[in-house]
Amino acid sequence: QVLLVFAEEDEQSSGFRWACDKAGFRCHLARTPQSALECFLDKHHDIIIIDHRHSRYFDAEALCRSIRTTKASENTVIICVVQRHTDREESSILPLISAGFTRRYIENSSRMACYNELIQLEFGQVQAQFKLRACNSLFTALEKSQEAIEITSEDHVIQYVNPAFETMMGYQIGELIEKELTEVPINEKKADFLDTINSCIKIGKEWQGMYYAKKKNGDSIQQNVKILPVIGQGGKIRHYVSISRLCNDNNKVEKTCECIQAESQTDTQTCRHKDMRKGSLDVRSTTSRGSDGSSQRRRSSMARVHSMTIEAPITKVINIINAAQESSPMPVAEALDRALEILRTTELYSPQLGTKDEDPHTSDLVGGLMTDGLRRLSGNEYILSAKQTHQVAGSLSSPISLNDIPPRITQAMENEEQWDFDIFELEAATHKRPLVYLGLKIFARFGICEFLNCSESTLRSWLQVIEANYHSSNSYHNSTHSADVLHATAYFLSKERVKQTLDPIDEVAALIAATVHDVDHPGRTNSFLCNAGSELAILYNDTAVLESHHAALAFQLTTRDGKCNIFKNMERNEYRTLRQVIIDMVLATEMTKHFEHVNKFVNSINKPLAALEENGNNGDGESIKTVLRSPENRILIKRMLIKCADISNPCRPREQCIEWAGRISEEYFAQTDEERRQGLPVVMPVFDRNTCSIPKSQLSFIDYFIIDMFDAWDAFADLPNLMEHLNNNIKYWKGLDGRNLRVLRPPP
């Protein structure tokens, strides 16, 4: 495809249009820079020809720079048409190259000259760009490969290694590039063996066999290696490709891991929530190394996390091994390190629940939120609007512009960057449509349209479609909850530690995931749907039923109509990556894996960071970056972020906390009513509107799910205002419970 950018029709533009027709190229014509940019973002042309002969119409170099700032132009050939000057010296082409042009075409309106130029471009630069695009796919495959891959030059200088190779050999990203193999530790005892390998590959033969290599830390590992010579220019070997994997008898990918020493048990505990979750947190007093109040609070928070042991069997095992390492000889300590690494990366984090006699509120909450329900005892079936028609872009009224927002709504959103922002004021001002307005403002603040290459009108339509598919009849799981979670997500993304960790694509994914994470929620739990034999439960095999539905429907609604498809201009690989992150974050809101996510976050991120701080390595940016930026840890951070945003109600200002408590209680009451009407198992009997104590239910939820998670998140992101609200809200609910009140507020 060819895009011609000429302000006026003349013989030169006519010549190129004729040449495009003759060559069989699709041709589009733009008269202004704005229309040219819009046309290119829509069609993604292979060749763009810009008229640079008449500066009075538009600045060709500025237009070229604008196009080059877009992701879509990476493999586009851009030609500059310049005037022919016979009466002065040839001018330099460097300014054009700097602006982003690929080459210059001196004006010649001859049709055959234009045709020849296009044919040369097709078989030259354009074909080369096609190969470069293919290379992106190949390198994506290499990056995701579980086999360790190393590419060296003919002189054995390392030119590429994939993440699997860096992990296996204990190196950080980019650390090996441009190093000669002689600079990398090898096994000295195998020098003769290396000569044998070299003698084979230097004559162009492939070598395969067992090989002992040394990691960066000096440890030897046994690999199954295949080395392939690659013939290049001049028929000579230009590269060597090495593909390796650890031998089966090792059956592990060894990594250098932090040895977190278990602290000795002390009798005195200084837990802020002493009477709650006894035994779940072992918070020891620490000596602060700073006089600053904020610093002291943060160190105290880190100390709590360092000693946190959420009562799961696997966590007990990790702590026992940590303690055993202190007095173990080096070989045993290293073996225990490897055991710890395996234990921290497998699915072993579900906690043991107490007996049902201990606390009926906690028991019912756990049963209702963390299980997939009991088997149905009746033949009744609950149909979750599986055949209902979902709202689409065409059926909705025209969305309002961000610039035309009524003053009351603008005023309600004035402090949306603050944690104490009142979502209920915005709900009232927008007549229960807060998501469109808050979404427009937050997405604009984070530059989402620019990242996605979509227009503001497309984003407005998308937000409206998503909001229309939230059920306003739900007391809790409606678009106000979605807007509240979006606000919390944006607030967390603005925290310094989070900004250090996540990339722009992660921020975009987090905001989109927060927006859609409960779309089409029926106001019933997964347990209810499974017990009722709903169509969704059958579709998703009783596993993460609602969360799977939210993620799937969000993409169905987005991609079925171009008017609201915010992803339509994205490059395929980038879209796949974004989609994967969004789905992972939405699925992370499912409560059955709550303790797994929190435990992994504490053990893989909080504790290593706390260890670095306690060892006086606060300024060691590289060590901290290693913890924060590993792909596995970034996934854990994103999951933790959306989990905290999703259930942050107890950390909101008191009046908001009370309002949310009333709304979720009403939704659970309605579910219990329906279970009894239909003869279904009642998964949360304590939520009987006639007998339930809302303060007790809130305290149980905070105790079981909130305290540990927000202690960990606070230690990571530094959130003193949230923790203060949490403490105040705990005192409030305890005060009501102490007076045996079952309601939201004390009597006047």
Automatic annotation (TrEMBL):
EC number: 3.1.4.-
Chain spans, region Disordered: 264-305
GO molecular function, one term: 3',5'-cyclic-AMP phosphodiesterase activity
Ranges annotated as biased composition (Low complexity): 284-294
Residues that hold Zn(2+) 2 according to the record: D518
Co-factor binding comment: Binds 2 divalent metal cations per subunit. Site 1 may preferentially bind zinc ions, while site 2 has a preference for magnesium and/or manganese ions.
Name of a matching Pfam family: PAS
UniProt binding sites for Zn(2+) 1: H481, H517, D518, D646
InterPro entries the UniProt entry points to: HD/PDEase_dom, PAS, PAS-like_dom_sf, PAS_fold, PDE8-like_REC_N, PDEase, PDEase_catalytic_dom, PDEase_catalytic_dom_sf
Positions bound to AMP: H477, N478, S479, T480, H481, D518, D646, Q698
Cofactors demanded by this protein: a divalent metal cation
CDD domains recorded: HDc (cd00077), PAS (cd00130)
Basic and acidic residues compositional bias, start-end: 270-281
Residues annotated as the enzyme's active site: H477
Residue ranges constituting the PDEase domain according to the UniProt record: 401-740
Any GO BP: positive regulation of ERK1 and ERK2 cascade
Pathway the protein acts in: Purine metabolism; 3',5'-cyclic AMP degradation; AMP from 3',5'-cyclic AMP: step 1/1
Keyword tags: cAMP, Hydrolase, Metal-binding, Phosphoprotein
Enzyme class, broadest EC rank: hydrolase
Domain spans labelled PAS: 134-204
Family that this chain belongs to: Belongs to the cyclic nucleotide phosphodiesterase family. PDE8 subfamily.
Record function comment: Hydrolyzes the second messenger cAMP, which is a key regulator of many important physiological processes. May be involved in maintaining basal levels of the cyclic nucleotide and/or in the cAMP regulation of germ cell development. Binding to RAF1 reduces RAF1 'Ser-259' inhibitory-phosphorylation and stimulates RAF1-dependent EGF-activated ERK-signaling. Protects against cell death induced by hydrogen peroxide and staurosporine.
PANTHER family attached to this UniProt entry: CYCLIC NUCLEOTIDE PHOSPHODIESTERASE
Quaternary data: Interacts with RAF1. The interaction promotes RAF1 activity.
Name of this chain's protein: Phosphodiesterase
Organism: Peucedramus taeniatus (Olive warbler)
Gene symbol of the encoding locus: Pde8a
